[in-house]
Amino acid sequence: MRPMRIPRVAIGALAALAGAVWIAQGLNLPFAPGSFMTADPLWVLIGAVALLSGLALVGWGLRG
Asked: pTM for the complete prediction?
């Protein structure tokens, strides 16, 4: 299963990064770009799920 290691880590890292951005936008942080997600608490929750899932996928890819 070694060929799946790099895609797991890459997809997990992208999901974690996207989750972090969504959290920042949901919290209306000053460095986050404005969008329809700005200051919406739902995006904090969605971002947290994406961030944790991405980190789990990275861990799985590195461990495997």
From this structure: 0.88
Provide the residue ranges of all domains of the chain, joining segments of one domain with +.
2-63
Q: Give residue 28's region: left, alpha or beta (phi > 0; psi -120 to 50).
A: left
Pick from 23, 58, 63, 57: nearest CA to 43: 23
Sign for the CA dihedral angle at 17, 48, 45, 26 comes to negative
Alpha-carbon 19 to chain mean position: 3
Q: What single-letter amino acid sits at 37?
A: M
Lookup result for tokens 């996928």? 57
Residue 64's pLDDT is 66
Q: Among 58, 61, 60, 64, which Cα is nearest to 17's?
A: 58
Round to whole Å and give the CA distance between 19 and 53: 9
